C-alpha cells in the first residue's frame, strides 16, 4: 500500500527545494521540511447556495452550460431523476453541484457545470414539466405546472401551489471555482469522478492534449446535437462517450495508415488511450486530410444518391463508423463519391458475411483492415 506521502504526490504537484550544503544536520532537517511547496494549486473554491428556481432560470436562460466536452451524457433513468426531486423536497442530502464561473467584461456571469449535470437536469425536467414527480408512498404522478393552452390533451395532476413554492425555494448547495482554465475544469472533473462509474470511453474525453483537443473539435463539428454524423442522420450508437472514442479511433487509424508501408496495424483501446496522451501537436497537413475525409463522409450520409448505403442495415456499428472514415481517408483523392459509397456498401456486406456480430474486437477489426487496404475504387465485389 502506498504511503501517505506517495498518495499525496499522485494528486498534487509537489516539489522539494532545499540547500544541499547546510551548516549541520539539525538545520538540514529544518531546511528540507520548510521548503516543501505545493505547486499549481487552484484558488479556493467558494461555497454558496442557489434556490432550485434560480438554478432552473439560469439553465433556461443559457447562463449555465451543462454540456462541456468532458461531461457525460444524461444517463440517469427516470426513477433516479424522480428520487433526486424527492430528496430535495424532503431535505435529504444531495452532493454539491460544482461550477466553473467566468465573469465577462459587462459584469455578467456564465457557469459551466463540472459536476452535478444529472441533478441539474432532473431539476430542469421537473420544473419544465418534462418529467413528472411521484411523491413517496403515493401512486399519483404530479406535474409541476399546467402547461395546457386548451382543453385538449391528457389531464395531469398538478402539484399544489404551496408545494411548487416550497420546491422553488429549496436551497441547493453549490461550489464555485472562479476564472479557472478548461484544463483545470477537466482535472476537477476527473478527481471528483474517481469513485464514480464512468465508462472507459467517457474517461477518454477528460484527456487534455493537442490530439484530444483535435478530436473534440471534430466532434463539435460533426457529432454534436444535429451534426451530420449524429443520429438520426446516421443511425449508430453515440452515447456514454462512444462518439468520442470512435472518432478518435478512426483518426488514430488514419495516422497509422499514413505511416504504414502497406496495411496499418490494428488499434485497441489501450493504444488509443496512449495515442491521445501524447503531448506533441497534430501536424497541420494531417489535420487538413482528416477534415477533408470527414467532410466527404458527412456529404455521403446526407446525399440522396449515396446516403442509402448507410441504411442498408438496421444500424451502423461503432467499428463500421471507424472504418468508413478510414476507407474515405485512404481513397478520397482517387475515388468518386459513387465509388466510395459502393465501397462502403461492399465493406458492410463483407464483414457481415464473415462475422455474425460486428463487434469491437481484434478478429472483426482484422477483417475490416484487410478489406479497406485491399479495396480499390471501381471494385464491384
From TrEMBL:
Q: Which residues cross the membrane?
A: none
Q: Which Pfam families match?
A: GmrSD_N (PF03235)
Stretches with biased composition (Acidic residues) = 1-20
List each copy of the GmrSD restriction endonucleases N-terminal domain by range.
57-166
Spans annotated as Disordered? 1-29
Superkingdom, natural source:
Eukaryota
What protein is this chain from?
A: GmrSD restriction endonucleases N-terminal domain-containing protein
User: Which organism is the protein's source?
Assistant: Crepidotus variabilis
